[in-house]
Design a protein that fits this description.
Elements (H helix, E strand, L loop, with lengths): L1 E9 L7 E7 L8 E9 L1 H12 L8 H11 L2 E12 L2 E10 L2 E7 L1 H11 L3 E3 L1 H7 L1 E4 L9 H13 L8
Parallel strand pairs: 4-7
Antiparallel strand pairs: 1-2, 1-7, 2-3, 3-8, 4-5, 5-6
Length: 169
């Protein structure tokens, strides 16, 4: 399993899917090349991810907050999330819950699992074979200069240029 973080979230208007972009944490770029894994999600799922990333709070609990509150009251927490498979453009995830010494493994949509992990600051992993099959290289043009605003815009355009069909194979 390779640890990843959420590099960015690109929210689009329906019917265009939004994109959650994962990037391996430990991967050192070679010649400015990074690998990214784009996961297409719906507008509602992207909104929930945005809420989690921004740590937004509302007067009434949202679904993910309700789930985490129930877990807390059952002395459980999110242990970790694993993106464990991809078929075409559909990703699969496992949500691991910890309740004392017991680890509970649940099938989950990646968008839900990731939104929960972000809320609880739980680690996110991707299986190595999934990373190999679903990642795209991204080249940072001036690695010694860091990421400039124009490079971020190029990155966004690159992501918007890939489609779920690019995974068909």
């Amino acid at each position: 399993m390779v640890p990843v973080n959420i590099q960015t979230l690109i929210v689009s208007a329906a019917p265009t899917p939004s994109i959650i972009v994962l990037q391996p944490i430990e991967e050192a770029p070679q010649q400015g090349k990074y690998r990214i894994v784009p996961i297409w999600v719906g507008v509602n799922e992207a909104t929930q991810m945005g809420v989690a990333l921004e740590k937004a709070r509302f007067s009434r609990p949202m679904t993910h907050d309700l789930f985490l509150d129930a877990l807390t009251n059952l002395d459980a927490c999110i242990d970790h999330v694993v993106i464990n498979d991809v078929k075409g453009s559909t990703f699969f995830a496992r949500l691991a819950l910890r309740q004392h010494d017991r680890l509970i493994d649940l099938d989950a949509r990646p968008s839900d699992a990731l939104a929960l992990a972000v809320r609880q600051k739980a680690p996110i992993y991707i299986e190595e074979d999934v990373l190999e099959r679903a990642s795209f290289p991204y080249v940072l043009k001036n690695p010694s200069d860091g990421v400039a605003e124009h490079e971020l815009e190029e990155f966004r355009q690159f992501l918007e240029g890939i489609a779920p069909e690019d995974f068909e194979g």
